[in-house]
Each structure stands twice: as structure tokens, then as C-alpha cells.
Amino acid sequence: MRKFIRYAIQYAILGAVAFFVYQTTFTRGTPPARDRAAWSQRDGFVAISYGGLTVDEKENSLVTKTQLRQQLAALAKAGYTAVTTADLRDFYASGKPLPDKALYVMFEGGRKDSVLFSQPVLQEIGLHASLYLYGGHLTGWNRFFMRADEIRKVAANPYWDVNSMGYHSELLNVTREGRYAHYLTALRTGPDGQPAETQEAFDARVAEDFRLASQSIADATGIPPLGYDFQPANTLGVSLPAELAKPVEEALKATFPVAFTRVGEAYNSRESAPHALTRLLVGPDWTADRLLLEIESRLPRSRYLDFSDSVRQGLWQVASGDITAEGQRLTVSEGDGKDPFARLRGSEGFENFLCQVKVEPTPKGAGLIYLRYRDAGSFARIQVTPDRVLVQEKNGTSLNTIFQYVLPLDHDGPVDLDACVKANRLLLRVDDKNASPYPVPLTTDTSRGFFALGALGEKPPHNAAFTDLRLTTFPPRWLQVADIHDAALGEARTLTTMILPSTALTADPVGDAAALVAVSADGVSVFLDLPEAEAAQVLDTVAFVEKAPAAMVFAKLLRGFVLPMEAFPDLNALSVLVKTLAAKGFSVALRLSEASVARLAASDAPLTPDWLLFDVPPTEDDPDMARLKNRYDRSRMLFRIPGPADAPAVTYEVKR
Description:
This protein is of the alpha/beta class and 656 residues long.
């Protein structure tokens, strides 16, 4: 009874102050600053979500206004910058950058308290938030949910944008035992529990709900919503049957540019599907420090990772089964009859990395190391059994074994693996021996993804142990040499690309082709330097590559060309050339001098090179460089490392 009275008083206060709030906090204050021209980050963003809010400090089921202020203030102090739903749309649809430490703040449910209690906090700290609601709640009077006239003011507020959770919030197939289904997750059933709706009727109901979900908000605000929050979370794309998921996914993609379908993780990378995004639900008992820790534990990892305390630190997201740690030994074990599977949080952006580990599969089982895991239909993994090592890929419905290494008959004990992944190539050593003389090719479909561990087997228990696990990521590193035969490949393990002179095609094509094979055997990509080339000369070189005595080798192993921007007075013509080379399967690295940097920054030519090579040192406050980082992916911008003028090689690396 006491709790009821508190709620009654709280909502009476809400009603009394609503008019004052709309006339003051909704119309005053400086809008949050967003200098999009200065943004340059293209890795991803953090999303956090709140349900309702309360001003009652004794209420323990909702986040209080005081907690919200403390949490958002701590995030702002830590350097997080709030972004809008339009920013997320542009990030995924157009590759536009986000700010460093991009933060997306959500309020789910369309509750009045979410807006009224958070607005002063957003205004005080200077943050933006996104309100998600059911379109069917906008009509009629309701003390809990925002109405159409109220939403119109929210949408016009610079601190907010308004998005959808669907139209109907109705629960289906409710039983006396308390079972039910959400509106878009099941066919309607009759009193006998049998389906009372055809698949065609379900498809039509889904399409209509998405139409109404968007139209209801657009009618109320004059602004079509860009975001969607699917309820319940972690069902679409996870447990929802395919025949029900397909019409939902089709309608979702046709209606909304971005959608949140999952909870539990805070970070969304550029490789995340824009219609399967995740957010972290903020607990009602979380302090500001707890929220920061929860977010930081889910952010991308880099450099060397020590796994001795990884389970306690919460670095593993366990999808099924369990993972335990004892010293340097990690064990995954089945649970509820399901094969174990655990993803390393923050690893979805790994591009180049070393993995060293000893694997102990069960006698009739297999240990699984997922080098890149996007979802159940897209991954690259190493499967280790007591008698062999398999490299497998899945893209769609079929699982393909692309490489197999048979262990010696007298092999006993754990299998020692050393895997080096460079872009789409895998260098694999087993028990300190090269498993293959050449890199194992991986498809571009698995170019990014989570690192994960798992196990499977014919009979339970499906367990596997992994000891001395070490992961080390490394950035792209390019080496330019005057002669391929003089290249020092002692550090080729972490060398990603080599730039060869154009004479490598003509001086000794057959000999250079053999050297090119040797370089590529270390997983090193090769670019050809064309320092004086014009468009016609470049195309002549491409034709020569296709017809040279060693054309098959060059055409297969040559990844692209380095072109000097200074050789092209017409940047639009250069843009056409870059697209022509891309159509032929070649990449382009554009070399920039100090003058070229200013010229490219001032140009509006639609240049789309794959890489930028700077012969000038990186600078922090150069406005031209800031404009280029806003326009181009900074992880594809390599800077010349200073060295002796007579050095046999020139190195280019990403600025750290």
C-alpha cells in the first residue's frame, strides 16, 4: 500500500509540473554540440539503455534521476560523446565517421518519466538521447506513456530523437500458466493451443505493424523514425524460427535504417549488422563506476592480451555451456546438452593478429578456435581433434573444410598451435612445424569477427581445454624495397604488405615471379610502385601484368598499385582510374607528399583509394590532416617512418 501511495504521489507531481517542464526545459538551453567535421573514428560505438526513471531514492526497481546524472556525468568526463540515430544511419550506410568514444543513449518504453526526469540531466551535461516507444500508445490518455502531442515536442527538442519499438504491444497466446508470446514472434493460436493464423496472415500482420510503427511516429512528429528496438531482445536472429524471422527481418530492413535486436553487450563495431545491433541495459543498482566498468570490459581489445584472469574479469561472453579458468588453463564445457561456445568481448575488430595456444580435445571430441565469428552462418575456425587439425569456413548453410593437417600417429598430448592471421590469409604452424608451405586463404566474408572458443563431439561430455593462450594484435605495416631479392623477410610474420618497383615486371619477370611467390608465402601482400605513371601508363601496366610471361603469378599475387597523386593534375580522372582498377580486382594506395595533402584536403573529387601513404610525418593540429581523417578511414592511413636516407627499405605504419 505504501508503495502504491508513493507512485500515486509521484505521478501527481508529474502531471502538475508537466506544463512547466514543457515550457521551460524543452525550449531553453544550449543544444549539445556536435562538430561532425572533426569526427574521424570509424571503429564503432557504445549503446546503453534505460527503462523508466524515478525521483524516489528508495525505489530499487528503476534508475533514479540522481543515478542518471552521476552516470552520464561520469561518461562525459571519461570522454564519451553522444550521437544521434541519424549518425548511426550515416555510419553504416555511408561510412561517415563518429566521434572518439561515441555513445548512444536510449530510453525504452516511451514513458513520461524517462523524458521529464532525464531532460534536465541531458541539458545540464550536454548529451543527446533517443526515445523508443510503441506507436499504439500515442493515442488516448495514459499517465505512463507519452502521447502524440507530447511526442511532437520531444521530437522538436534538440536533445532528443524519437524511434520505434513497434506499433502493437499486445501479448499473444496468453495461458493460465502464464505463458505468452510477443506480437511479432508467434502465430496466433486458438483456445486449444493450435495455430489459428496462417503463415501468409502472419506475414501480412508483420508488414502492417512495421508500417504503422513508422507512420504513427511520422504523423505525430513530422519526422519518420530511423531506429527500431525489437522486443523481446535476443530472439530475432537467435531463437526465432526461420519462417517467422524472415518476414520480420524483411519488413525491418525495408522500414528502418538501424535496429537494436540484442542486449547484453555495449559495443557495436562497423562490422556489426545495422539491423542486429546490441545495447547494454543499465541496472537499477549500478553506480557510475559500475557502468564505466561494464562498458570498458566490452570495448575492443588491442595489442597483447593476458588470459590468466580473463574469466574473473568477464572478458568472455558465454553463449552456451560454461568457461572456467585455472591458472593458464581455460576449459569450455557443455551445458543443457548444448556445445560450449564463448566469445572474447571486444575482439570483433581484429584484422591482423597472432594466436598461440595448446589445445586439449576430448578423445572423441574437438576443440574449436574461432579466428573470426560473425554469426552461426559466417565464421572461420580451427578444429582440433586427437588426430588432425582442420581449417573450416562457413558462409551460409554449408560448412567447408578448406585445409587439413593430419597429426603423426604417435602424437600424444595437447596440440600446439601458432596461427598468424593477416587480413584474409592464415599462416598456421602445428607443433612448431609449418602446416602448409603457403598461407591458407580465407574469404573476404570472414574479414572481421569475434575470437571465440568452443567444443563439440560425438557423445557428451563436449569439453576442451586451452592452455597458454596468447593473442597479439598488430597494425598494418608496409615495406618498400628497391629490389625484391634484397628484401629482408626476417620480420615477415608481422609484415602485411610489400611495395615493389615497377621494374619487377620487366627486368626479370620469371625470377621476380619466383621471389613474389616466396614473399606471398609469408602472407605478405604485394603492391607495385608506379612513381611516374599517368592513367594510360597504369592501364598499360595492368595489361602487361595480364599477358606477361609470368602473368598467372603476377595476376594472382599482385594486390594493387601505388600511385603518386602529384602525377595526376586532374583528380577526377584519377578517381575514374581508381574505380577502373577496383573493377579489375586491384587495390590502390595513393602516395601523398606535403603539397598533395593540402591539395587532397581542398578537393571535392570523389576519390576512393583503399590506402593513403603519407611521405610527411603525422601531425596533431594540421587542419588539412583533420579534414582527411574525417573523409577517409584513419586505419587505412599509413605514415612513412623516418630512417636513414640510404636505407634499403622504407617503412609505412599506422600512427598510434
